[in-house]
Design brief:
It is a single chain. 20% of the residues lie in helices and 31% in strands. By secondary structure, the protein is α/β, with parallel strands linked by helices. Strands 1, 2, 6, 7, 8, 9, 10, 11 and 12 form a nine-stranded mixed beta sheet that branches. Strands 4-3-5 form a three-stranded mixed beta sheet, with no helix packed on it. A hairpin with a 2-residue loop joins strand 8 and strand 9.
């Protein structure tokens, strides 16, 4: 097992998305919630912040949190991919994508960015989110990447006579008036068995993994620090906000 002592990026990101930096250099609020946050409350607060950003009345924000165990269904979800409907609460979401799981040990990052100030390019945003996660995983020495036809960030795993690809992070965003919300989830140390109640993102032929499952004994604080370092390189400056500040 490998425990991380320092936070640094060993190599430049393979793809820079400079168009995603604000031309005015304004910092993004960076807020880390204490404890578990109720999903419905989180969505309501995101909705309020997105409306305020679109109206020019609030700054952008990245909101890092954890949820109690639950499944969410994106706009492309298929009911057949909900394998155990009674296992955890199921929330219908307006984000892109299909079914996913959220729970303790998984870092959810809700991304409320103003694309009016960042190029109005949704594809660039998604590439930026991918680069953000890949850069954070690079801090821990985990090679990761994207795959054609599959949403999220993946790692290749090998052993004597076998190899497979597992998903380590999910992406699902929604855009309203060129402001993004929902976002990403990075598996730090969740109960991987909890993913068995769904077909994650509609992909049955591949598995799900986490940093700890990969042998990286990272704490949530270390994961947050890696995410912040990588975010700043892809999207620009951040400003820490007290956890008790509501979005």
């Amino acid at each position: 097992m490998k425990h991380i002592e320092t936070i640094m990026l060993s190599e430049p990101l393979s793809e820079t998305v400079s168009s995603l930096h604000r031309s005015d250099g304004r910092a993004v609020e960076w807020c880390v919630a204490d404890g578990l946050v109720d999903y419905d409350i989180a969505v309501a607060e995101m909705e309020a912040r997105v409306a305020a950003i679109a109206a020019g009345n609030a700054p952008e924000r990245i909101w890092l949190l954890e949820h109690s165990p639950l499944y969410t269904a994106g706009v492309s979800s298929r009911e057949s991919d909900l394998l155990d409907a009674g296992r955890f609460p199921v929330h219908r979401s307006g984000r892109g994508g299909q079914f996913t799981y959220h729970g303790p040990g998984q870092r959810v990052a809700y991304v409320m960015l103003d694309l009016n100030a960042r190029g109005r390019d949704v594809r660039a945003l998604v590439r930026g989110l991918e680069a953000w996660i890949i850069g954070a995983l690079d801090v821990f020495g985990v090679p990761a990447g994207t795959r054609e036809g599959r949403v999220g960030v993946w790692v290749e795993r090998k052993g004597p006579g076998w190899s497979r690809e597992d998903k380590v992070a999910a992406i699902g965003v929604k855009i309203r008036k060129w402001v993004s919300f929902h976002g990403i989830s990075l598996n730090v140390e969740p109960e991987l068995d909890h993913f068995n109640g769904i077909v994650p993102c509609g992909i049955a032929e591949h598995g799900v993994t986490s940093l700890v499952d990969l042998g990286i004994l990272a704490t949530m604080d270390e994961a947050d620090a890696a995410l912040k370092t990588s975010f700043q390189r892809v999207f620009g400056a951040t400003e820490d906000i007290r956890p008790d500040t509501e979005p």
